[in-house]
Every structure is written in C-alpha cells, then in structure tokens.
Design brief:
364 residues; Rossmann fold; OB fold (Dihydrolipoamide Acetyltransferase, E2P); 6-stranded mixed beta sheet; 5-stranded antiparallel beta sheet; 8 helices; binds adenosine-5'-triphosphate; membrane; PotA_ATP-bd
Length: 364
C-alpha cells in the first residue's frame, strides 16, 4: 500500500513570460509521490516549489507534461474537481465565522447534510485538539490555533492529497517546532498524502518521509532525509542541506571504484569515485563538519593539518575553523561535553581526522 503512487508528475514544464522574458519556473519535472507519504519540496526562494504545488492543486496548468492522480490524468481538470486541498501560509480563514463553521465550510459547499457536517466537524475538532474552542471566532485565536483550524478545515472533506505551502513560516520558533510534531501526527493518523513546501532544510529533514530538492525549476535529487544528507547528488544539494566543507582536488588514480584524490591543500585521500570518473578529473571532496575531529598535528590519524583560525562556542557544540595550507578554511564541529572544555587556542597547529566513510567525492 505504502508504495502505490498518489501523484505522478511526468515531464512537466511551466513557462511564464513571453518572448525573451519567457522562462521555465518548472523545468522538466519528473516525480512520483507515494500514497500515505509525507513528501517535501525543498529549495531556495524562487526555485519553483510553489509553482509545482499550484500545478498539483490546479491553480496553474502545465505548459507541457502530465499530472496523474491515483492513475487519472488531471492536467486539465479544474481545481475544485480534484480531491486535493491546500493549506496556505496565511491560513486564509473566514474571520466572521466561528472555528466550527470554518471547519465545516468545505462540506457545506459540497452540499452535505447538517448532521453529517456536525459529526465530521466534531471529529476534526478532536483531531486537532480544539474541541473547547468550537464556538470561538477565528479572529480571537492565536497563530498556532488558527493554523490548526486551517488544517482541520482542509482535512474535513477527506482529500486524497493535502498540499501545504510553507504553513509554519508565520509562527515563532517554539510554536513552529510544536506544529512540526503536530503535522507529523495528523499525517500519520489520517493516512492522507501530504505534500509540504519549505525552504527550511531542518524542517524538511525532521518531518519528511522523502524530499525533492529543487533549484532553478529542476528537481536535483529525490530521497529519504538520510540519503540526501549523507549522499547528496551534487554540490548544490550538499551545500543547501546542512553545513559542508568542500575541498578542491584531482583524481590521481582509480582502483576498484575508489578514487585517489590529491587535494590542493596537500593531503591525499581515497574514497568511492563518482560514476564514469577518469584519472585527471577535477573533483570536490565533501565532508560534514560534525564528522571531523581535531587531533594533535602529529597524531597518526591526522589527515589534514592547519592552524586554528578561530573558535566559536555554540552552546551544544563548538566550531573550530582551521586554515589549511592552500588558504581554505575547514570547519570541525564538536559536541561540548562537561570537563572537556578548553585546551585549544587560536593560532595552534592542529590535525583533523575523520572516518574514511564520511568522505564523498563529487564531480567538478
Ligand atoms: P518562494 O519560496 O519564494 O515562494 P518558490 O520556490 O515557491 O519561491 P515560485 O513561487 O514557484 O518559487 O516561483 C518560481 C519562479 O517563477 C520565480 O522566478 C517567480 O518569480 C516566477 N513566477 C511564479 N509565478 C509567476 C507568475 N504567475 N507569473 C510570472 N512569473 C511567476
């Protein structure tokens, strides 16, 4: 069941503008979103996430390509006929209606009877834990409460797919964290496919079953959070998701799928080669700061050496920025533990070690 497809996006393009100003806001997207999945479209501002979501909703129509929902081509179907609902960033509640009236609004428009509406509204109030506020005007609710009403209203007609366009961005940090857990729970309890749009990589990593990373209208990578974080397809994805050190280098030899890389900072290392690599190829070596550790400069485990440019205390962690011989800065992020503080000063010559499976070699 979990692997049945809910939405298939096939070779979809959406162009805006005319003549020389014409451009593809969605540029040849291919994607299969599974039933029951918490799926996230992630990318920087302007990369086309909202446009892709609006194509699924039917607020925009594709210039080319197919949109298939549970096996049916819906590319030309008007939005109100699609079994899809959307939750917007600004909630778009009706201020003159109560919480219960807002939640029942969609069902009323569908011509459902009073008793059916009342039963469903009470179910939805329970689902979002707002039973005690049923009669309150929505203008008298906090931001988090309004967001719950918007969710309940969108879920009430039992859509097959719920689209969420940056629904948490108007909330403060603590409330956003709470609502992230709440959204995960609502998705699990209702079993509805959620398609969530965000530009916040941490939000995407913590909430999603799978993520599509977008840039300039293109889908660069689709995968589970851990796949994307640990095995980014390219430099853009690696840089956008999490903190990363990039080291320039050149492949000097290849052996059984492993590349030996001579880096501009002087060190050499060996790691799985990108597909179809050849000796002489320019590559970028990627290493997450939390996978590296500071050691003594003469420690046999030191792979890189450099001088400590600065130390930034960050509460849970400390960042050590090390200046390498080619002038680049390498960041080591270490967890702070009681009794282990201090011992390093700016200007110290230090070594950096990391496990060999933490290294990724990327093309270019
Ligand atoms: P954000 O996170 O800032 O909302 P986004 O990734 O959702 O960004 P989109 O809103 O999909 O990006 O926009 C993608 C590109 O398409 C942008 O360059 C935007 O200016 C353009 N665009 C979106 N809608 C239209 C429109 N109706 N007419 C012309 N250009 C548009």
């Amino acid at each position: 069941m979990a692997d049945l497809s809910a939405i298939d996006i096939r070779d979809v393009f959406k162009h805006f503008g005319h003549g020389e100003a014409r451009f593809a806001a969605v540029d040849g997207a291919n994607l299969s979103i599974r039933q029951n999945e918490f799926f996230t479209l992630l990318g920087p501002s302007g990369c086309g996430k909202t446009t892709l979501l609006r194509l699924i909703a039917g607020f925009e129509f594709p210039s080319e390509g197919e949109l298939v929902l549970h096996g049916e081509n819906i590319a030309a179907m008007p939005p109100f006929k699609r079994p899809i609902n959307t939750v917007f960033q600004n909630y778009a509640l009706f201020p003159h209606l109560t919480v219960a009236e807002n939640i029942g609004f969609g069902l009323k428009m569908l011509g459902k009877g009073k008793d059916v509406i009342a039963a469903r509204v009470s179910e939805m109030l329970k689902l979002v834990r707002m039973e005690h506020l049923a009669k309150r005007a929505t203008s008298q609710l906090s931001g988090g409460q309004q967001q719950r009403v918007a969710l309940a209203r969108a879920l009430a007609p039992s859509p097959k797919v719920l689209l969420l366009d940056e629904p948490l961005s108007a909330l403060d940090y603590k409330l956003r964290k709470e609502m992230q857990i709440e959204l995960k729970r609502l998705q699990a309890e209702t079993g509805i496919t959620f398609v969530f749009v965000t530009h916040d990589q941490e939000e995407a990593l913590t909430m999603s079953d799978r993520i599509a990373v977008m840039s300039s209208g293109k889908i660069l990578q689709v995968g589970a959070p851990r796949d994307i974080y640990d095995r980014p397809a390219d430099r853009f994805v690696a840089d956008f998701i999490g903190e990363t050190n990039f080291l320039k280098g050149k492949i000097t030899a290849l052996n059984e799928g492993k590349a030996q890389v001579a880096m501009t900072c002087g060190a050499t290392l060996s790691a799985p080669a990108p597909e179809a690599s050849r000796a002489g190829d320019e590559v970028t070596v990627m290493l997450r700061p939390e996978h590296a550790r500071l050691v003594g400069a003469d420690d046999p485990n030191a792979i890189l050496t450099g001088s400590l440019a600065n130390i930034i205390y960050f509460g849970t962690d400390t960042y050590f920025n090390v200046s390498l011989s080619d002038g680049s800065l390498f960041t080591v992020r270490q967890q702070n533990r009681p009794g282990e503080e201090g011992g390093r000063s700016e200007g110290d010559i230090v070594g950096i070690s990391f496990p060999s499976d933490a290294i990724r070699v990327l093309r270019g």
